[in-house]
Amino acid sequence: MDTIHGRILTIIEKERLSISKFEKTIGAGTNVLSTALRRKSAISHVIIQNIVKNYPNYSISWLVLGEKESPKEQILNKVIEIIDGI
Q1: What is the pTM of this model?
Q2: SS3 track for the chain
Q3: Tell me, which fold does domain 4-85 have in CATH?
Q4: Domain map of the chain by residue range?
Q5: Which of 10, 21, 46, 83 could form an S-S bond across to 17 if both were Cys, CB 3.0 to 4.6 Å?
Q6: Residues 30-66: pLDDT tens digits?
């Protein structure tokens, strides 16, 4: 997906969540994110921060800009994968 809205929808799909459940897991109010996605309106920086905190497998550079993760993010994500596997 080439927009932040599309990338958020990709996360929701890959995590096999409803938008409502995703909103709960990131601490967003009911329908706040679903409305922003539907209208393609601005996404709050707080929502972006909460997505990255709760779903660390997705880099902030990818989420916001659609860029591949930096080498530092790749290492961090690999460490998280290893720790999660323990």
Answers
A1: 0.76
A2: CCCHHHHHHHHHHHCCCCHHHHHHHCCCCCCHHHHHHHHCCCCCHHHHHHHHHHCCCCCHHHHHHCCCCCHHHHHHHHHHHHHHHC
A3: 434 Repressor (Amino-terminal Domain) (1.10.260)
A4: 4-85
A5: 21
A6: 899 999 999 999 999 999 999 999 998 888 888 998 8
